[in-house]
What we know:
Two copies of one chain form a homodimer. Chain A is mainly alpha-helical.
Amino acid sequence: MLTAVRSICPMANSGKSTAKQTLLQSAVAILAYNPGASLQDIAAQAGVGRATLYRHFSSREALVRELAMEAIAAIDQVTTQVRAQELPAKEALLAFLEGVVPLGDRFHFLGSESSVYTEPEVSMAYKRQMQELDDFVTTLKKEGVVAPDIPNAWVSTAIDMLIWAGWSAVESGDIARNDAAKLAYRTLTQGLS
Amino acid sequence: MLTAVRSICPMANSGKSTAKQTLLQSAVAILAYNPGASLQDIAAQAGVGRATLYRHFSSREALVRELAMEAIAAIDQVTTQVRAQELPAKEALLAFLEGVVPLGDRFHFLGSESSVYTEPEVSMAYKRQMQELDDFVTTLKKEGVVAPDIPNAWVSTAIDMLIWAGWSAVESGDIARNDAAKLAYRTLTQGLS
DNA sequence: TGAAAATGAGACACTTTTGTCTTATTTAAG
DNA sequence: CTTAAATAAGACAAAAGTGTCTCATTTTCA
Lengths: 193, 193
């Protein structure tokens, strides 16, 4: 376990995740499965007091908003990396899945949380990201990875759902962490056959 | 499960659905997207007072339990019908999807509601249904519809998610009601190509 | 029409959650 | 060692949700 490096060495700030980061991580882990969880539950899961949570997030709404923005940023990071490689569309799809399936809880949280529609800041970023996914689908069609007669909306939805499928299959222990993205990719490109 | 026995009264409710049915329908429609919705919201969506809701369901827990059991029964009805036709596995899959995609909200509600794990009655019925799905996956493998090297758990999860994908794509207006099951079927059997 | 049943509205007590605050303790830095 | 910052614990009031109850009104059916 590499988790315990924090205290001894004086300058090792690199491995130390801030309390805020821990809270965000715990929050998304809980909220992805139980959107109605209380801040009590979230703080407890993060191993901090409820008051500490309020020191970092002024309200539940603020927590959810930051969570959404952080999820969007994490996914953006993946898409940026994938684009930089300038892969053919098919390989880009696999790379995208490899990067995003481990973020499955954040990804799913985004699609299910209603704040995505109410908060303008989040809403705008989310729409942009959905648009980018739609553009990617168009590329997939151009390069023959996806049949042209399938509606873009269906392709996007199917990708969404199989990302969540991959993450939750790993989480429930049914699928190995390194297999999930490949299974999603295989299912998308050639089905289950 | 005989759905039409409702009341002793001779003719009373022909075209009119019971308040209870309306409530169940509204509840699943709301809870599928917002699991934390209040009974106030549910009653309002059903167009009845909150007190009326309590006349039909003694508690939130009872409402959710009946909802879950009703969802399980609805899905059972589909599987019974599909089995009765004695179709080859591939055609059976399509028939199953055609029947279940319109029940997508109930299906999704079942998989996400935690009462499924806490209530013994629901839990037992749910496990049985999941087992039946797993058996069906085994049949799909035997008849060559699904490759033998794909884990059953992945196949089940993928079917689950694409059912939900179909229902929500219809709900959001992106996909025609009559296309959703076919798109899910096509995606499962040959991917998006 | 008239009686019985169902409903809408809302009052009420209770519980949980939320957001703010204070205080004692721990942790980090000088 | 000493000081300053961060934290856990918990008190507190306000808000929202739950479950029970009553009563006036509407609906239903005989």
